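Suppose a classmate hands you a notebook page containing two proteins, each written out with its sequence and a corresponding row of structure tokens. How would you begin to make sense of it? This section walks through that situation. The first entry is reproduced here exactly as it would appear on such a page.
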Amino acid sequence: IMGNQTVPTEFILLGFYNIQRLRYLLSLVISIIYIFILLGNSLIVFLSVVEPRLQTPMYFFLGNLYLLDVCQTTTTVPQMLVHLLSGRSSISYERCVAQLYFFLFFVGAECVLLASMAYDRYMAICNPLHYTRLMNRTFCLLLASVSWLSGALNAAVHTSLTIRLPFCEATGINYFYCDIPPLLALSCGDISFNVTMILVSSIFMGWSPSLCIGLSYGCIVWRILKIPSATGRQKAFSTCGSHLAVVAIFFGTLMFMYVRPTSSDSNYSVDFNKVVSVFYTVVTPMLNPVIYCLRNKEVQEALR
């Protein structure tokens, strides 16, 4: 112990402290969404493995995406439900650190994977003659491996920087789970290097994949505009629009949260940050199987 600085044994997650009267209703809603995420994503992962028609690069990447979604929500949602149903919101320091690492791991991996998926769609639509040769199994495995390894490295860097910070005697985190911004707000030490590393990470894990996705879909749209059939253009735009909507929600909320890590200076900012975090922890994983696959005729045929 150094003055009023100490290594806490546990944290108190205060994300639900002002909605205790609604905790049972909220736990029911979150449970239903979580079950849908587990069943929907797990079903698509299973189909992509056992159904020969779905063993293509696109469904390979989608299988990785759904696996990441299941892992990400499992990192946070069960803990939320325990706190809601029990009324107790404490989490040990070790479990908090583990939750922080795995959450950053899966979210970071998904950022890079979404860029890989956009590149795959670009090759399929804009360069179809060479698609099979270029997007072979080895190259797809390489892109997926880079996504997972990038997420693991990003999480290791930020977790190690966070646990080196000294914390004050107060251990209340006004959040649903352990994340970088609320932990930085709780620290008594200098967080300037942590903030700098978040900005650096946002370039490689946020802005760069976003730019890749934007360029890929820009080329795809340009190619779609050349389709002579109005029905074909409408169908293609509908699919691209749905994909881009999910990507925009995911990256938009992430950039808001991690490019502005000190936004917890006011109660309004903290509450708004909590609402934003719900989108990339619960809403996006729920929408992904609906938008990407369950509306897809190939998946519907495989289900039948």
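The notebook's second entry, a different protein, reads as follows.
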Amino acid sequence: MSKIPISVLELAPIPQGGTAATAIERTVEIAQHAEALGFYRIWLAEHHNMEFIASSATSVLIGHVAGKTSHIRVGSGGIMLPNHSPLVIAEQFGTLASMYPNRIDLGLGRAPGTDQQTARVLRRDNMDTAYHFPKDVEQLQLYFSEENSMAQVRAFPAEGIDVPIWILGSSTDSAYLAAKMGLPYAFAAHFAPAQFRAAIDIYRKNFIPSSQLDKPYVMACVNVVGADTDEEAAFLRSSLIRMFVGIITNRRVPLAPPGPLPEAYQIPEIRAMADKMLACSFYGSQETLQHQLGNFIEETGIDELMVATYIFDGEKKKKSYSILKQALSSL
């Protein structure tokens, strides 16, 4: 099995006792650490009306992280395009790519990245924008293209700049679109693994080559917690479980230290929902991760692995990435 690129997904979660400023500072440290380890890219995700997530102004944070690193690719995982005008996104990412050439990625999602009430505010009560997603992606591509040079509306400095566009997904709908448009496909198996295998199969079978990509390219995002021992990794993973239980019960709290699991996790229905969402999670020592992820990569045939790591302690989080790198380097 050939080695594949490893990348990082960051939401700049605010830990218990921390602030948005400390979360952003930690995100920069993670990016610098991932770069030193040889990770290929780091993506930031757009979320809104979430008190303990500091990545709402995604384009701004991408620029900050790119400016604090030297060569790792930095991008969006993703920009929720129905929340924005394609022209504005073209201008923002054209600017980023002008500042940091050949380092910026533009991952696009259809979901709002928030609750429905906040989505209505973002979209100015036009909730039909999600249905225009395919056309908006095409419009975005046109703004980046030199073919738009004779149009009345043009995007500067985006025009003629190469910013790779990705389709993000958590269902089979996105797979059909990515295949039809001949774009690379990133699947959010870290929180919605149920349709992962079906989606990548659809994508591969229906892929049509494009000017950006001549064959299918699949990236899977999964949860990973690495530690010196399986027991320590299981303990650190409790922070992740607590976070997901908070999402399910709508009791969101800052990223908490590891510890006893909440009582709500003992409710069968809630536990089943959490376990289903965490089905693509891998935790353990270097040897355990090597075995688990090696099997996952071989079974799915993915082209790139992106990992989300929710560990309260910043140094232990960085160590988890180091252990992951060692594990996959040994394959």
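A careful reader of the second entry would note: The radius of gyration is 19 Å.
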